[in-house]
Every structure is written in C-alpha cells, then in structure tokens.
Amino acid sequence: MDLLKSVSSLNRVGAAVAKKLNKIGIHTIGDLIYYFPFRYDDYQGVLTTKELKEGMMVSVRAKVELIANRRSFKTRKIMTEALISDDAGSLRIIWFNQPYVIKNIKPGDTFLFTGVVKTDMLGPQLIAPSYERVVDTENVLSAKLVPIYYLTAGLSQKYLRFIIKQSLADIQNLSDYLPTEILEEYDLLPLDLAIKGIHLPDSQNDLVNSQKRLKFDELFQIYLKTELSRQKRQQQKAPRVEFKESKIKELVKQLPFDLTKAQKLATWEILKDLEKASPMNRLLSGDVGSGKTVVAAVNMYCTVLNGFQSVMMAPTEILAKQHFESLKKLLGKNLNIALLTRSQFFGIVNNETIEFKKKDLINAICDGQFDIIIGTHALLSEKINLNKLALVVIDEQHRFGVQQRKLIKEKITGLDGLSAHFLSMTATPIPRSLALTIYGDLDLSVIDEMPVGRKAVTTRLVESFNRQKAYDFISEQVKKGRQAFVVCPLILPTNNLDNELGDQMVFFDSINEKKSVMKEYEFLSKQIFPNFKVGYLHGKMPSKEKDFVMQKFKNGELDILISTAVVEVGVDIPNASVMMIEGAERFGLAQLHQFRGRVGRASHQSYCLLFTTNEASGTTLDRLKFFEKNNSGFSLAEKDLETRGPGEVYGNTQSGQDTWKTAGPTDPELVKIARKSASNIVLKLEKYPFIIEKINDFIAGNHWE
Ligand code: ADP
Ligand code: MG
C-alpha cells in the first residue's frame, strides 16, 4: 500500500476537492487514513430489519422506499403506510390518522424509526413509530458507530467517508512496523485492523482496541525518539564542572534572602548534572516569581569558578536587560558579564557597567574577556566563538520556537569536541505526566514553592455592572503610587482582521464586544483615566517600540499599561499591583496565571480582576471560579489539560508534536506501557529494522509513514 500516493489518485477526487483536502492537511493516502474521526454517532441500540420480534420497542435505521396514505375499508380512517429498507432487508410501517406524516417523510431519505413491532400474516411491522431524519449516513447504513470528521467548507461527511473507505480498500496490505511479539505482549491490534477500526468500527470493543493501538503508536514513537536522543546525549562528552562548595556557600550566604527548599533542591540537582561527563539537558520549571533566576545564577557562577563561560538566552531585549541587571547584583563583584542584543551592547567589568560598540563587544567576548554572556536570539546571528563555554541557560524557553531552540544548540558550540550543558527554564507549569511526554529527553526540576512573605494575589471575577467600581479601584491604587495592567485579547476591534491572542492570530466572529487594545486605550486614556499616564503595547509594534514602552512602564513613567498577551513574558515590575484582564474566557488558565504573575512581586497586596465578554456561565464560569480560588500554576495546568486537552494547551510551539492525532498522553496506563516498551526496544533496536525506519520518518516529520 503506497501511503505517499496523492489523494488525487482516488476516484472522484478532482483538483478542486484535492485543494479542500489539502486545507485540512490531507495530501496523500497516508494523510487520509490517518485523518481520524473526532467522535462517533452511536447507533448501537439500533436493530436491523431482520432482528425484530413481536412486541419489542425498537429503533431501526433505514431508507424509505415508498410512502402513501389510504383510507381503511372498515373504519374509514386514514392510514399511512411505508416500506423501508436497510442492508438486511425491508420492513413495513403503519401510522393511523396522521396523514401529515407523508409531508415529513420522503422516499429516498434515511430515518431512524422508533416504535413497537407487531407481527401479522405478512411478518413484522412497525406501528406508528416516531421518526428522525438521519443525514449523511447513506453509505454507512449498517454501521453501529458512525464516524464524524472535522470538515472544511465544501466537504461533507458523506464524501469524506466515501474516499476514506476507498483508500481503506487494500488496507490489509499495510505493513505493520511493530513485531508480533510486541503486539502480543501489550495486547495490541495489528496496524491495518486498527486503522480500519478507527474509521469503521464493528463494535464499541473494536473501536476501543483500535484507539488503544493508535494511541500506543503515537506515544511509543515519542518515547522511542526521546530514548534515542537521551542515549545519543549520554555518548556525548561535556566539560566537567566541579562543585566548588565553599565559594558557592559564600555566594548563597551573601544573597539578600534565604533560598527556598525547592530552590536549594533544584540548584543541587543542576550542580550534580554539571559534574557529569555527559551534557546536562534539564528543564527548570517553576511558577512565575518562584525565583528561577537565582538558581541559574548560582550554577553559572559555579561554571565560571571552574574556568568556563556561561551563556544566558532570553526571548526579549527587555528580559535580557533585566537579567543583566539582576546578575550584576548577584555576581557583578566577581565576574565580567556581557549583554548583547539587537540594540544593547554592554559589559560589566570590575563591577562597572560600560557601553561598548557592537564590534568591540563581540571581539571582547571572542577574546574570552567575559565569564557570562547574556543575549537574545540576536546572539545567534553573530559569529561568536565561545571556546570556554560549558553552560547554556535558556530562559522562558517556551518563547523560543522549536526551530530556534534547535538553532541555539547548533550555533552555540562548546569547548573543542565537547558539548555544553543545557538548562532550560519555563514558567509554564507542566503536569509531570505530560512533561514526560513532551519533554521526555529533558530531566525535570520543579520549584513548587514560593519565597516566604509573598502575598497571594487577590483574584476576582467581576460582573459587568461592577465595571465602574473596578476603574475606581484602579484609580485608588494609582493614587497610592501603584501601577496597573489591562490585558485585552485583541489589538483592534473585531471587524479588523489584525487580531491577536497570545502568539496566534485569530479571526473572531461577528460580535463586536471583545475588548481590543486600541479601543480600550482610546476609551481609558480619554474617558476614565484622563489624569493618569496611560500607554499601550501589542505584538504588532516593532520590538524596539515594545521595549521602549515596557521600559517606560518599568521606570514608572506610565501608570497604566494596556496590552495584549505579549505582556505575559516574565518582566519584573514590582510596583504593579493590579492586573485587569478583559475577555478572560478567551485565555487558558495557565496563561491567565502568567498574567496574574505580573503582579504581586513585592510586599504590597496585589489584585487580579477578570472580566468576560458576555456574562460567564456554565463551564466558562466553572473554569474562572476555579482560577479565582487557585493560586498554584500546577493545579491550573492540570485543569487546563483536563478541560482543553494537551494539543490545545501545549500544542505546536512547545512540544514539537504539531498535533495529536489521538487523545495524547491522557491515559496513564497506556503512557506506562508505551514508555516501558520504548525503553525495552531501544536496547535492542538493531533487531527491528522496521521500527528504525518508522522512527527515522517520525523524526523527519512524517509521522505516519
Ligand atoms: P522567576 O522564577 O519568575 O524567573 P525571578 O527569578 O525573577 O522569578 O524572581 C522573582 C523575584 O523574587 C526576584 O525579585 C528575586 O530576587 C526574588 N527572589 C528569588 N528567590 C527568592 C527567595 N528565596 N526569597 C525572596 N525573594 C526571592
Ligand atoms: Mg524569570
């Protein structure tokens, strides 16, 4: 079976349809058979016309052949008689005194009839059944579970089923890359049966087994891939960074605060990794404000004490600057630190900050004059030799795309023949189960505790009639010297297409109520807060301008900042005490939590006020109420995962897994067996050429091949 063959090779797939199929990601036969239904209509209680017995209450799904009214000889009453048929045979129906039925039921259409069976000399008959038209199941009339696919304009369920069925015709020729011993060990269906079963399940049981096999495949391939990269990494050599105990203890003692237990543990885990001869690949995950920077700083310091260099990458100029300043405070007395971004060229030498010309700074860095180099991805485009590099720290790593992260690894090379240690940091809380899947080749350290004395941010879902009160409250806070954020889901009002929700561009529907940055800016700066300094920020502004506005807010030159989700990145503005979020229902809980983390970074009480587009109800209300009461990023992430699924929450940018064809790592038992089999197989992979081939394709991005 040739999975690479174009869908155009199928019957009744012309150029126009092929284009529509491409739109939903279907180019080849392989894409098509891996285009799984997202749900099934359940007709399992439905009988065929041959299964009926006297007196039963039944449902039958069948096509109407004939229907007509006539008058009874004896009673003179009107009777409606119909003949219906399914794959098993045909059946008579009769209604009394309901002549209008023939207006609703037309020959050729398919209906679900539910009524009582009565048998006469001619056989069984349905008496006065209720009826419900069934659309689009003509070609799956006998199916108990009818697959329903996501569609695009101009494609119908019926048509999609038709071409999928066509491409499944020789599915038995699909070779299975998994050997029978694995199938037997974990009780898995062969691939061809699973693919057939997910599209055209014979029974609930068949569906469950098919789904199990296909979910297993998806997880198994991910785990195998990560096992392989772990193996490869362990063969690489990295510079050994010795733990310099006394100096490190001295540094920790000098900090203006005590490290939390979680910070100490994470620091220790990283120090242990640095001592190894193979490169570290560790993710440090901790809520906003949990103090990841200092953990990184201690480890960078240790690296330098060993005579090596360290690089810290930040996703934005302003964050890079912020790190430069905090590292100056923490380490500036002892180390030389450089800052290189698109527009900033600074160095700290002997505890003094000096502005450099770009060329000079690059030369000085290449010359080995700096112990720590802080930069943005601008660093990647320069030709920089760091021949004593031992540790790379990537802050807010989820802000770097998969490609960028790859580039960092390729571009930033370590000592001769050695690879640097990598520490990634993220404030996106990731439930452990999921972290294993999407970050399987990373070891995980978690800071699950906040520094003492941090006040929880008071969070309130505000009803629209209290909006003015919220504005009054913001005024009070500003008069006290505090600052406020207002986050809106969009840049411009909805009739304009330049909208933004986080990183994604989204085109919203017609209701023009969703708050946009520009409209709110107009409104708030002129009508509500005419006496305050109000600024705005959104992702469409040139990054120089963004940084400029952010810096102004940081310096206290703005009282109120109206922004899109771009403000999410970890900039520290301790003086801000109010985070007001418009259209809160539009954001995931983890993202709302990131916003909330922008405030409450100093000793004063801070507030997070949520507004919804329409009055919140149902699940929206539940979610936001949960958020109101819950201050732990991890439980919010779990909730997100539960209500929105892994694809929605952690999708493409983070996992490198574009989409989940199946439900993803939601079934703990399956996660367990898929991991177990992957780690078993990896030890004797040479015995399984088909698996090797499959996994190479998977790594290359052709997940189904
Ligand atoms: P994040 O984990 O979000 O990157 P930061 O590293 O920026 O957090 O830390 C947030 C703030 O908390 C900083 O001002 C930092 O100095 C402070 N901080 C870090 N650790 C502690 C601690 N153990 N006790 C008190 N304050 C701390
Ligand atoms: Mg940070």
Description:
A hairpin with a 2-residue loop joins β11 and β12. It is globular and about 110 Å long. α9 runs parallel beside α10. It has a 9-stranded mixed beta sheet with strand order 12-11-10-13-9-14-15-8-16, sandwiched between helices. Strands 17-22-21-18-20-19 form a 6-stranded parallel beta sheet, with helices on both faces. It has 22 helices and 22 strands. The protein has 705 residues and is of the alpha/beta class. Helices cover 37% and strands 19% of the residues. Residues 257-260, 263, 286, 288-294, 427, 451, 570, 572, 601 line the site of adenosine-5'-diphosphate.
For this entry, give a set of tags:
22 helices, binds magnesium ion, alpha/beta, 705 residues, nine-stranded mixed β-sheet, binds adenosine-5'-diphosphate, six-stranded parallel β-sheet
| Fraction in helix | 25-40%
Q: Any idea what the radius of gyration is?
A: 32 Å
> Poorly predicted ranges (pLDDT <50, ≥5 residues)?
495-513, 651-658
Quote the average pLDDT.
85
Separation, N- and C-terminal Cα atoms? 11 Å
Task: Classify the beta-strand content into a percent band.
Answer: 15-25%
As laid out across the biggest beta sheet, the strand order is 12-11-10-13-9-14-15-8-16
Number of strands: 22
* Structural class based on helices, strands and sheet pairing: alpha/beta
